[in-house]
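User: Run a structure prediction on this.
Assistant: Running it now.
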Amino acid sequence: MKQLRQLLLSVAAILFFTAALSANDKPKNIVLILADDLGWADTTLYGKTSLYETPNIQRLASQGVTFSNAYASPICSPTRASILTGQNPARLGLTTPSAHLKEERLEAVSSPRALPHQKSTNVQSTTRIDLSLPTLGLLLKQAGYSTAHFGKWHLGREGHTPLERGFDVDLPHWYGPGPKTSYLAPWGYANFKEGEPGEHIEDRMAMEAVKWLKKRDPSKPFFMNYWQFSVHAPFGAKPELITRYQNKINPDSAQRSPTYAAMVHSLDDAVGTLLDTLEDEGIADDTIVIFYSDNGGNVHSGLEETDSKGNKYITAITSNQPLKGGKGGIHEGGIRVPAVVVWPGITAPGSRNKTRIQSLDLYPTILKMLGIVPPEEHIMDGLDFTKALRGIEYERDPMFTYVPSHGNTPHWLPPSMSVHYKQWKLIRTFHYGENGDHQYRLYDLQKDIGENNNLASSHHNVVQELDSLIDQYIQDAKVILPLANPNFDASKFDASLIGVQAGGLKMPSGFKRANEVTPSTPPTKLSPKGLLGWILRGADVEMNAESIKLTANARQPFMTTANLQLTGPIEVRIRIRSTRDNVGKLQWRTHAQEFFPEAKQLESFELTAGKWQEVKLHLATEGKLKHIRLFIPASKNATEIDWIEITSKSNSQKKRWDF
């Protein structure tokens, strides 16, 4: 039965392929370049970076159309599955980066319970996509295309590799979520020629793709699926490029990793290698080139870097500002990505388009433009955007994103689904409202791209309309949902921790061990009473006789406390001592603000080495103060705090903590 189905599929594809041939003389080749973890602000396409250099991606943009509202899943495997099938990860059940695991699980399952401090359960993702699905590779191969996959896969091990999904070639035939060992050889791939010491895997992948391209059968069109390893962890780059970008670092910029900048450089070099080859072979005018990223930039990982003067510092890998959040999260920083399409004869060179598109839209769009029709029974969530390629801007139908698990990245949310429609974005967070109801966040992205102002309480009709769209899609796609947690314990729930990355930046393995200094006497362990209700992130703490001593172990260490209920304006006083000259910061938000505003409501204060000083800060707050964060210097030298006092200047109400 399966063989008959494949035969019928092949015949249908060939018939449509023949029709396309007669209409267009000869079919277009396709090069699909998928970057890994490259954020919306990580290229020069949108004018959001002064550090990264992407001249070849910019060159590609000069030949076609750049999309300013392109979206993906916030995590890699779901996006990859959506591109190959045209289905939303919510329908596929593949919602986590779990496709490298040995276990083969083809159905998503709602976890029956969760940890006591969590209001909802997670959904256990599938780890594979069904082999019966007509993937893009299969359909194009059956339509007469030569097919090849290069680079990252992350959609399954043996039996579920590119070779089973319609690709004739798969190099380096690796199932993992990133490069096997590192970017620079030796790599250690099985049955793949080892590189010379120091050879970059992205250079090698581009070279292998060029070799295949030059040896192909020129009588057949080709589909090159070039899925880059760059810029996923493990973080590393060519030493000479790191040195180059050390000289460009602006210490005041949120993008200040020379290692990551060097990785972006190598990614862009590979794009240039492919473009050069298309031109050298004389086939650029016959080849569609698509550039896309699988999710937003990584803001939860960190590196210890060295500046041009030899000073060491810890920094996040990148920043997606002005977008909120990053990889793994449902906010814009996790799902909005760079995208360029060059379709000779169709796209206007150097054009831009604001039409909202999603990764799963690539499937129906490519097939439509090539005149290839998928099996009638195959359900597609993706929408054809050929009108946008021809220069028309229009309002896309509702777009859904699904992240049904608890995360640990900056601005993470509990299990949620979002819908984009018109200027609106609604996020439904399952069972995190009052009495087990859902919680809602509504943003007007035309006015608030940073998602700083939740309008849900003032736009009930919009929330209701968009929430009904979520309900309808859940029903249509038979989405497996999180459950209310039967183990929930309200006494263990702290809403202020939602969106905070526990433990600070995720550093490379071995970082702490390499930097640990064994104390002559062990530090006193603090009970929760030792911090008097404050929560510490990104630092180690010791208790002295009359103070607490904090030592940073991550970028941006801070203390935080919430539910202050103090009416502004506010005065904050802190008795503090630093072992070296440095700068501290204090950030705040009010009850009217759901999140801390990006780069706003932040007061800095100078610390003089060696002496106790009393810092006094005046906060021009409107309404009631709810939540503050006290950022200590991100250095290996300790900072001591004796006491903190917060006073309302309108009614003299005061809170004080003596450590």
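The chain has a mean pLDDT of 90.
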